[in-house]
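anyone seen this seq b4? input:
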Amino acid sequence: MAERPRRHLVSYFGNRYLDHFRRDLQEIRDHGFDTVVHCVTEADREWGMTRIAEMFAMTREAGLSCWADPWGVAGVFGGEAHSGYLARGGTVGAEDAGLRALLHNWIDDVATAGTECIFWDEPNLGPGHGPEALVPFIADVSAHARECGLESSVCLTATVPNVRALRQLAALESVDDIGIDPYYDLELDHRDPDPEDYVGRWADTVRDAADEHGKTSHLWVQAFNIAAGDEHRIGRCIAVAQARGVSGIAIWGFRACEALDIRPARAELAWRVVREALAGD
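predicted toks r here
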């Protein structure tokens, strides 16, 4: 059986103008990506789902897979977006009915808009809710996604307590893919943990957990907060992840997060390194 091509994913946020997105889509394709992870906030859901649907359609028409990320929703998922749910007094807990309703409605809306997969981005229920509470929570929301005809991918932060949760999440029937994001703060920490050890170790962990249950895996490579002169490390991390056999290589994010203050010192160079590193995969 021929080896399945590796998936290349990139996160996308910070723009809702269609003419701009059309140009960005071409750039995404030119960089070798086949999947766009669209960051969909609570504000998008309240004010912009028609536009989100148009962007999803453009993504699919460009021949790319379309994933949706509940970016910063309820403060439970990763992302810099603010939460109106929390601002209005909403609470977060593994059994919180209001939170479940918010997420079920978010799923319904992105399903209607045309996504193919939900990317559950660094879920964290907060103090007092460890990995043991996270698994049934993800089981609930991913089951609702499955009822809507969607796949689910779950990415956890690279911490020791999450190792067991990765295996448990991979065992869920409603979860199709699991991921890990072994970021290290390259701008502030120049000890430079060796990617072969750090990224490689986490790539092995997520790959093995996925393989055990017949699921796919992916690993996020950091393309933000990169100091000048350290851009080559992005390529090193990508190369290690490629060599360890994960199903997907993911980059956070488009144009090396140039739209945010976490951008690298030389974002254009960092983005070029991403393209060169992915070209040989």
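Residues 7-279 form a domain with the TIM Barrel fold (CATH 3.20.20.80). The radius of gyration is 18 Å. kinda curious what u guys think
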